Structure formats: C-alpha cells, structure tokens
Known about the structure:
Blueprint: H1 4-12, E1 17-20, E2 31-33, H2 36-42, E3 48-52, H3 56-62, E4 68-69, H4 75-78, E5 86-90
Parallel strand pairs: 3-4, 3-5
Antiparallel strand pairs: 1-2, 1-5
Amino acid sequence: MVTSFIRRALATAGALVAVAALAGDRKAEPFAMVSMDEVEKMIGQPDVFVVDANPEEIFRKHRVPGATWWKSAPLAKLLPAEKDRRLVFYCASPT
C-alpha cells in the first residue's frame, strides 16, 4: 500500500506520475498523468514497472512496495527488457 507520506507528497507536488502507454497502441499518447488511486490499482500487476525518483532517504522510508529506486543503477539498466511493460515514475518533489 502507498504510505500516507507518499500520498500527501504526491498530491502536494501535483502528482508527478507518468505512465508510458503500451507499445502496441501507437495512437495513444505515450505519457499520461495518473492519480494515486490508479497507481495503487496498477501496483503488483505483472505488466507494470514502478520507478521511485525520490532521494534515497525518502525511498528507504516511504517507498511504494515493489518500486525500484532510480539511482540504484543507470536508468537504461534498470528498465525491464520487455518493451510492452507500463512504466510508472513517481517523485514526492518537483525538484
């Protein structure tokens, strides 16, 4: 479950969440803002990959279950090999 800290921070930061559209749907906008409720429904689904872009301290204390910390390796190495996965990026701060 998403911690109340992350929920509040994302609401304050304007819910900076981008989801890459499925590669097979070329007509869809490739990125979209989604609500925390939508992200909560996506967490744990096999076609979803969650990337936490928060500073390490916030990631360690308040991460979304299953999220990968983006600074743990170069982004290109973190992303899944399967190109049809939906990508969710989130951060508690716009800076």
